Every structure is written in C-alpha cells, then in structure tokens.
C-alpha cells in the first residue's frame, strides 16, 4: 500500500511575507522562508515580563 508523503511547505519570499503580514490580524515570524505564528503577547504575558524585568533590574 503506498504511503503519502507530505511535501515541505513552499518557501515564501520576504516580499510575500511582508505583503501577507500587512493584511494579517495576528503577528507572525519569518524564518528561512517559513511563516510561523508568534505566541504570547497577552496582557498576562506583559505583566509577567514586566515583573521579571523589574526584579532583574533591582537585583
């Protein structure tokens, strides 16, 4: 029985990524031609990051 093999995703050019990112509601990263959704960025995430930064600056 033959098996299906997924082909790697088509690499995007930087120009294609920038054009898509302008229209996107979510932030993405561009890594070696691959568009990867970014994580984080919530209010809770910002509070935690701010607390860690303040703790490091005081210590």
Automatic annotation (TrEMBL):
Native organism: Woronichinia naegeliana WA131
Record-given protein name: Uma2 family endonuclease
One family name in Pfam for this protein: Uma2
Gene3D superfamilies: tt1808, chain A
GO terms assigned for molecular function: endonuclease activity
Keyword Phosphoprotein recorded: no
Keyword Hydrolase tagged: yes
Domain Putative restriction endonuclease: 15-56
Top-level taxon: Bacteria
InterPro entries per the UniProt record, alphabetical: Nuclease_put_TT1808, Restrct_endonuc-II-like, Uma2
Keywords: Endonuclease, Hydrolase, Nuclease
Entry coiled-coil feature ranges: none
């Amino acid at each position: 029985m033959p098996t299906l093999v997924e082909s790697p995703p088509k690499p995007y050019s930087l120009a294609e990524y920038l054009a898509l990112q302008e229209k996107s509601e979510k932030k993405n990263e561009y890594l070696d031609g691959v568009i990867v959704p970014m994580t984080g960025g919530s209010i809770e995430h910002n509070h935690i990051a701010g607390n860690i930064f303040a703790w490091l600056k005081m210590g």
